[in-house]
Amino acid sequence: MKLQLIINANRHEIECTPAETLLAVVRRLGYYGVKFGDEQGLSGADTVLLDGKPVNAGSMLAAQAEGHNIVTIEGLGEHPEQGWKKTEGLHPLQQAFVESGAIQCGYCTPAQILAAKALLDRNPNPSEDQVRAAIAGVLCRCTGYVKPVQAVLQAAAVLRGDEPVNWDSVNWDLGSWSDQPPGDQPTNLPSDQFANLLTRPKVVVTPQTQTYQTVGKPEKKVDAVKLVQGKPAFTADIELRGMLYARVLRSQHAHARIKKIDTSKARELKGVAAVLTWQDIPRVIYSTAGQSDPIPGPLDTFSLDNKVRFVGDRVAMVAAESTEIAEKALSLIDVEYEILDAILDSREAMDSNAPRIHDEPEFVNFADSNPARNLAAEIRIDIGDVEKGFKEADEIFEAAYEVPKVQQAHIEPHVCVTYWDEDDRLVIRTSTQVPFHVRRMLAPVLSLPVKRIRVIKPRIGGGFGGKQEVLMEDVPAHLTIATGRPVIYEYTREEEFTGARSRHPMKIRMKTGVKRDGTITANEMYALSDTGAYGCHALTVTGNTGHKAMALYVGDGEYRKSPNIRFYADVVYTNTPPAGAFRGYGVPQGYWPVERHMEKIARALRLDPIEFRLRNAIRAGEYHPFSTAWNEGREPRPEIVHTVGLEQCVAQGKAAINWDSKYGNEEWRKNVSGIRDQVSGENLTPDTSHMKRKGIGVAMVMQGTAIPYLDMGGASIKMNDDGSFNLLVGATDLGTGSDTVLAQMAAEVLGVPLEDMICYSSDTDFTPFDKGAYASSTTYISGTAAVNAAKIVAERIKLRAAMMLKLDKHEDIKLANRKAIAPDGHSVTLAEIALNSLHKENQEQIMGVASYVSPVSPPPFAAQFAEVTVDVETGAVTVDKLVMAVDSGVIVNPLTASGQIEGGMTQALGYAVCEEMRYDEKGNAIERDLDRYHIFRADEMPELTTIFVETFEPSHPFGVKAVAEIPMDGVAPAVGNAILDAVGVNVDDNPVTPEKVWRALQQVK
Ligand code: FES
Q1: What mean pLDDT do residues 446-458 have?
Q2: Could you give the CA distance from residue 687 to residue 357 in angstroms, rounded to a whole number?
Q3: Would you state the torsion angle of the CA atoms of residues 43, 49, 53, 58, taken in this order, to the nearest 10 degrees?
Q4: Three-state DSSP state, 979
Q5: Tens-place pLDDT, residues 306-334
Q6: Vertex 767, ends 765 and 770: CA angle to 5°?
Q7: What is the pLDDT of residues 224-242, one digit of tens each?
Q8: Distance between CA 590 and CA 527 in Å, rounded?
Q9: Which of 43, 113, 114, 411 should be mutated for ligand 1, with most atoms under 8 A from CB?
Q10: Relative orientation angle of helices 435-446 and 474-483, to the nearest 10 degrees
Q11: 900 lines ligand 1 (CB under 6 A)
Q12: Cα–Cα dist 468/124, whole Å
C-alpha cells in the first residue's frame, strides 16, 4: 500500500505492507534514532511524538500514522558545527543531556528526550515527580535515572529563560581526607540555586591527588553529541543492498534428541534464501564464553546440534527477504524429537540416576568438569586450617541462602550484521563487549582463518556481561556463508529471556566460627551453582563468588595473619537456558549470603554490625587471601592489597544516611509520616502509617580490578596536522564512558583538552588488541595502555620541540595547553610541531603504540547503606534511600563514574526486590517480556546518593581502581538487613518479594 507520512515536517511517500509498523517504516526511511527495544513497546525505546504526544512506534501500524505529525529525535537539533552551514545547534534538552552526564549507552536517550519534550511543551515548569512520570515509559538500564531527570529540569530552566547554569562554575561536593568527622569536613557545596540540578557526586580526594588538567574533571562524554542526536551509531543502524533477515527455530522441549528434520517446505517458501540444520554445517565444538585463550571452561556447544538441552535451544536457522517470511519459514520446518528426561532443579543434577545432559563424544573437559556427573566445574579452595578455626570458635553460625537467576536486560537486544567484503573477508558488525574474542573463537566454527574475519564493534546499547558472550554472531555468519549475502540477526525480547545468558542462580550454605569478642576464626561457603545447559563462564563466575565475597573478612589478630577460609562449589548442568557473565560476575551471588550472615552474627552476639565487620575486614598491606590459593585454574600468584578505603567509606556513608540517629532508634522506625506509599504514591500520614515500619541496613563489599597476568589492552595514538590526536583502542565502551576516560588520561599526558582526542573503538582490522570490556578492567588496563602510548607520543613531541626551539635537552619540556613549553618559558604549539613533523623537516608520523597487562588486581571497596519501609500487613517493601560510598581509587571522571554507581545500584535494586527468571515444570520460561520481568522505572526509584572516597592505587599511573561492577554487590544484602532492622524477620532468598516477607512475618506472629 502507498502512504504519506509527515516526519519532522518532511513529507514522505512510501510503499509498505498493511502490517508494517511505524517503527519499521521510520527506520527504513533513515530515522535511526527510533530504536527497537521490544515488541510490545514496554521498553519505550521506540518512542516518537505523534501530534506532540509520545507513542510507541513499534506497536502501531505505519498506516495509523498517516495524516499525523511525527517527530523523531532527528527533528530536534543538530551538531552546532557544520562547516560553513549555520545551525541552531542542539535543542536545550539535548544540550542538557550532554552536559549533565545523562547518557550512558545512549540507546534510550532519544526516547527519553522526546518524552521529556512532550512534557515541557505542555508544562514548562515541571516538578521532579512530573519529570519522572513523563519519562517513566522509557526504560533505562544504565543510568538509574538520576542524571536524565536532572537534565530535563535543567533544560526546562533554559527553555523558561532562567539564568543558565554555568556548569564549569558548579563544583561537586569536594571533601578531603581528614580525621574530622565527615559532616565537619571542608566541602565546596553548590549554592541552593543549583541544588536540584546537581548531578555530580561528592568526591573525597586522596592526599596524593595532583591538580590535573583533565583527569578528575567532569568532562562531557566524547560520544554524547552523536548519541543525543540519535545518529546511526548502533549495530542495526545500517542498510546493505540485498540484506537478508535471520530467524532461529528454537526448541520447545527441555531435553530431546532430534530424530528427523524436514525443511523442504520452508526452503520452498518464496523469499527464503537459506535454511540450515545441524546436518548442513561443520560440527565444531566450542564455548560461547568470550574469554582469553584458552577458554577456562568446558567446550560443550555447537552452532547447531542433533540434541536440544533447554526450551529455547537452537534447532535450525533461516535467512529470508524479510523477518515475516523468515518467521513463516520456521513454522514450516517439521521436527521429530525423542523426548528425554530433563533436569530442572540443580539439586538433582548430580544424582546417580540423573539424565546426562552432555553425552556428545566431542565434549572437551576443563579442569574438574565431568559431564558424566553433569558437572561443568568443581571448585575446592582451602586457605589456612578451617577445621582448626571452627574448633577455636566460641560460636558456630550456619545458614542456607539462595540467589535467583536474573537477566542483564540491556535495552538494545543482541544484534549482528554479517557480509562478505570486496576481498572476500567476512565482516561481522556486532554489538559485543569482546570483538577480538569473537574473531578468534568464531574462526574454527566458520572454517575461516582468523585473518579472513573482521569484527567491527559499533556503539553498544548496554551489555552488562550479556555481550561478553559469542552468543549469536555465528548465526548470520553461517547464513552469509550459505547465501553470499548480507544478513542481519536481531534478537526478539523473548529470545533475550529464553535464548541469551543470565546470572547464575545459586544455593549457598554458610558456616562461620566466631569468638565472643567478634573475631572470626573460620569462614566457609559452599555454593551449588546452576550453569544451565551449557558451561559458559561456569568455573570463572562461580570462582569469583568465593574469590571476592569470601576475601573481605579475614578475621582479626592471629587470624588476620593466617585466615581460615574455605570455598567449595559445584557448578552443575541443568536443562534451563545457560547462565553466563552478568555485571559483578558471581560476586553479587556471594555477598547476599556473606552480608546477610554477618548481620545475623553481629545481632546474635549483640555487637555493633559495622564495628564487627570492620574488625574482621581485610586491611591495606595484607595478602588477598585467595591470591595465595586460586587463580581460575592457573598457578596462584600471591598479591598484597595496597589501598583499602573501607573505613572512610563507612564514615562517609554513615554521615550521609544519618546512621547514628536511625540505627536502633525505635521512634525513628515507627515514624513513617511523609514516606511515599508504594501502592498509592501518596505520602503517608500518621493515620495511614501505623502498619508501616522503617529500617536501615548496611553491607560492605570488595571487587577486583581485571584479571592479573591475563587481561591485556592495547592503544595507539597518532598526531594529526592540527595537533589533535587519533586514539585507537580495542577496548569496548558499552555505555560505561570508557572512550571518554581513556581519552582523558591520554589528553592529560599530551597536554591537550579532551576535545583534541578523537577516540575510536573498536575494529579488529584497525585498533590494537584488547581483551574486551569485562572484569572491571577497562580504565585500569586499557587506560594504562593509553597512557603508555601517550607517553611514547609525548616523547616524540618533546624531541621535535627541542629541535624547533634549538634546545640541547628535551627532558624538561612540559606539555600543557596545546603547547610544548621549555623551562625558560619559550614554547611551540602542538599544531606547529605537527606541521613541522608531517610536512617540513625530517618528516615523520608522530605516533605511539602500547599495551598493558597487570601483575595485580587491586580491589575497590564500598560501604552500601539502605533505608526501607515495610508494610507489616502485606509484606511490601519500599526502598526509600540508597547510599553508596566507594573507594575506586582516583576518579578520572566524576560524572561518568557516578553514573556507573547510580545505574549499578538500580540494577542491584532489582536483584534485591523484584527481578527473577523462573521456569514451569516443563522448563518453559515464565518471564518472557519486560512486563513479567520488571526493571525499575524512573518514577519508582528511591533516592540515590553516591560518594567517592579516593585512594591512590600505586599500580596505576593515575591511581585508579575499578568502578563498574562493585555497585551490584551490596544493595541486596543491605536491603535484606534493613528489612530485618524494620520488622525483625530474615528472608534468606532474594529477591525479597512481598510474599516472602509476608510469610516470614506470619511465622513470627
Ligand atoms: S543509557 Fe539508557 S539504556 Fe543505556
Answers
A1: 98
A2: 58
A3: -40
A4: helix
A5: 999 999 999 999 999 999 999 999 999 99
A6: 110
A7: 999 999 999 999 999 999 9
A8: 9
A9: 411
A10: 50
A11: no
A12: 43
